[in-house]
Design brief:
The chain is mainly α and 95 residues long. The chain is built from 5 helices and no strands. α3 packs across α4.
Length: 95
């Protein structure tokens, strides 16, 4: 019989926790989803990036950073403003 895999039966979350990357991976995933949701909302509203930046009172380059799924260094107030600009609200909760 071969070696037993120590990860069989454990979750991916357990694996990430053991690797010490759970928080970083979770933050990256959340930011990716938020960026995707904002882009979808902009499309539903037929809103260009220029229009979105104007609605947020920000620059197009700042909006590009917000919509960049790899950039997880966006302030909460910026995400709230982005959601508001597309007629949505940002909800965050602790589980």
């Amino acid at each position: 019989m071969g070696k037993k895999n120590p990860y069989v039966g454990s979750s991916f979350e357990d694996y990430l926790r053991e690797q010490g990357t759970l928080e970083e991976t979770t933050a990256s995933a959340i930011k990716s989803v938020l960026a995707w949701q904002l882009e979808q909302a902009m499309a539903e509203e037929s809103m260009s990036k220029v229009q979105m930046a104007k609605a947020m009172n920000t620059s197009r380059s700042q909006l590009d950073r917000i919509l960049d799924p790899k950039n997880d260094k966006i302030q909460l107030d910026t995400l709230i403003a982005a959601a508001k600009a597309v007629g949505r609200e940002l909800r965050i909760e602790l589980l």
